[in-house]
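Reviewers of the previous submission asked for a worked example of the structure-prediction workflow described in the proposal, so we include one complete record here. The input consisted solely of the amino acid sequence. No template or homolog information was supplied to the procedure at any stage.
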Amino acid sequence: MDEGTPVSVAPESQTQPLHGAEWNPEFVDQLYDFLEGLESRADTMAEDVAALVEEHGEVIYSELIYTLSHLRFDEAEARPHWEQILSHRQSMLDRLGAPVDLRVALASYFLEVNRKLRNPKIIEIQLFAQAQASAYRDELTGLYNYRLFREHLSRELFRSERSSTPLSLVMIDVDNFKAYNDGHGHEAGNQALVAVAKLLTGLLRKTDIPARYGGEEFALILPATPKISAHLVAERTRESVERHVFADEEPEPGCDLTVSMGIATFPADAADTGELVRRADRALYVAKSQGKNQVVLYGESRRSFGRVNVAIPGDFRILTSDSHAMTTVNVSESGVMFRTDRELPVGTVIEFKMNPPGSRDPITASGRIVHIDEQDGQFLTAVHITDTRNPDRAALGKLVQGSRRGSGLP
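From that input alone, the workflow returned the following structure tokens.
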């Protein structure tokens, strides 16, 4: 059988997509490129798929099957199906004595062997890709739409919690848009929104997700981004919008387009997606009420991790063999505050060890002293963590999450 143009076999009765496994813009283009080149990769397909799995994880098996058949399986199910499809293809080749297209083998497998397809239809993969993209793109600005924003925010927050990294959300509102729209007309208003969308994406990384939240509101999801970095990106973006000339007409009073922004960061400001959106929205409201054209951090705090009050015995040393007793007052994934009877200069680099009750393994990290305050003959010492080993970083994250949930130590 001849190798043809890639197609997607879509069943008339589709299985329901699994939560957290929907179309993923991070690698969908790479996936379609892979499928477009099926004709030339018959001999290297196993190695090519392995390379995709190495980069994106085993979710790639689920996405490959979904793209080709519109059947959705979770990662645990998808890999065995993929291996059986390849085995079925080899069986067909042995019987026919001629090359068998992967897509033909997949359709045959789900029709005749696994019987997940009952009434399949064939669709050109470029048309399928366009349909998928249009479901997640805002037609006017080309940014991701509200639907993808919600899906991706949930996915990125889960990743942040699992990896103990901060996630920042920036909510954005175009100032004076109604007055501008009324003064210049709806077409000019639409062009202005398109221009704002381009300006918002100018300083973003490939992993950041810009979205049109609705009307003249936008949102930026910034994975692995502490609040101070998110503030820097937002401030530079605000300045670029402020400098931009949006129309040829003479500016009218009250019609200058600028943006107000509110920033909230997980886990310091919120424990879930709904709370994160509400708090970023709250910061945005403060920015608008204080005069617009500004960036406001939720709670006026630059912390990216929330601190929990917990007393843990331990010790620290100043890069020597001598250690000194300490007891923590509060801890976060990025810092520790402890009490000790020893006064240390700000800027001192120390290594410290905490011994959580109920745990056999201590948590070890190093950091730099950023603040010290004398209280009742002891010294309240704040340390910014600069280095932890992976197991200790994970243990610290579990400790903080467990204390935040009110369950004490994990």
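The chain is about 40% helix and 25% strand. We consider this example representative of the routine output the project will generate in years two and three.
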